[in-house]
Amino acid sequence: MPDRYSLPKAIGWSIAFVVLTLLLTGLLAFGAALLITGSAQAANVWLGQTGPGPLLLQAVIMVLSTALFTWLIGMRALGLTIEDLRYTGDHRALGFALGGIAGALAAGTALAVAVLLGAAEWTRDHGTPLDYLGAVGKTIFVLAPAALSEELIFRGVPLILLARALGRGTAIVLIAVLFALAHLTNPNVTPLAIGNIALAGVFLGLAFYAPGGIWTAWGAHLGWNSMLAALDAPVSGVPFRIPFLDYQAGDPTWLTGGQFGPEGGLSSTLALTIAVLVARRWAGGRDTT
User: Fold this and answer.
1) Residue 259: inside a domain, yes or no?
2) Model confidence over 197-237: pLDDT tens digits?
3) For 4-47, what is each residue's pLDDT tens digit?
4) Is residue 289 included in any domain, yes or no?
5) Strand 245-248 relative to strand 121-124: parallel, antiparallel, unpaired?
6) What SS3 state is found at 121?
7) What is the pTM of this model?
8) CA-based nearest residue to 58, from 87, 82, 36
9) Would you call 237 helix, strand, or coil by DSSP?
10) Is residue 88 part of a domain?
């Protein structure tokens, strides 16, 4: 793989990678849902739900599809190595753990701002502490492959190709914008929510270039999502019902995010801005690939 890549080739191969991955994911997910439900109409309805079953199925299939096209396009066609893709290294476990902590702290900061400066609050819900722990564990089990699949498709082959054509900083921002646009159909999405998701994409792109590579980015993504879900807040508009604890966003929605969750409010803008500044130092400031 050359140190530099022409922009047309980088864009063309990136589009091919994403389109083929999504196409195969959609076909396989529909086929699996058809086997589960028994009819095409029921399969479409089931896949359109936000329950753990459909989310887990689609995430696992996307991980497998992304892995296939990473090998076919990234490694076989373009000659990328696992080192180029930042899959290897001495800091994978540590990177995943530190990324998880960073993501969780950022999400916790966003929620704290919404509570302290807005009307967001938690109230006692039905269930016991054991019910809570069980539900959180199951939720993280669902969120883990979902976060990994998004990292593999966004902070994988396309980021590496664009970084070698445009430079690291420009590629991180461009991929972050595409990452945000992929969430346009999420429930209760707003322009501010899309902006915050783009900011989160910058944070995750910088985490990808920190020690630990893709595993650090995965940890940061999972840490953010898991903290929100564990505290009963929606994750990018998707609610996760957690017993024992009930989160109410309250007003003003421009601060708390309302029904979309903290990612739809300025509380997340503040938290993610801090996270980006920290991750930039973690990844190193030089614009290299």
Assistant:
1) yes
2) 999 999 999 999 999 999 999 999 999 999 999 999 999 98
3) 778 999 999 999 999 999 999 999 999 998 898 888 888 888 88
4) no
5) antiparallel
6) strand
7) 0.94
8) 36
9) coil
10) yes
